[in-house]
Amino acid sequence: MAGDTIFGQMLRGEIPFDEVYSDERCLAFRDIQPQAPVHVLVIPRKPLDSLRAADSTDSELLGHLLLVAARVAKQEGLDDFRTVINSGLEAGQTVFHLHVHVIGGRPLAWPPG
């Protein structure tokens, strides 16, 4: 089944989550293992394994995800924040459904890994 990940289960209402934002194209919720005081994930409702699975037909959706990430950061009271998209195991992706991390609420070091 397409989207058969923990995020797909969340989108189908099969498991609970702490929703931060929702619209017809995406969902944002608090990470269950936060790496900072604010750690929200923004996921598309369309099941895409990762950013590398997206193509030119997904341009509007990808832009929408980033705009929602900025909206969520503002909603959470963040002036400064980091957005992260991991693509692939070696990049740290653990759930293979595209997601944007919105992280903030403390100073963030660089490089991240």
UniProtKB/TrEMBL annotation:
GO terms for molecular function: catalytic activity. InterPro entries: Histidine_triad_CS, Histidine_triad_HIT, HIT-like, HIT-like_sf. A motif (Histidine triad motif) lies at residues 97-101. The active site is at H99 (tele-amp-histidine intermediate). Residues 6-113 form the HIT domain. Coiled coil: none annotated. It holds the Pfam family HIT. Gene3D superfamilies: HIT-like. This is HIT (Histidine triad) family protein. It comes from Prochlorococcus marinus (strain MIT 9313). The lineage of its organism: Bacteria, Bacillati, Cyanobacteriota, Cyanophyceae, Synechococcales.
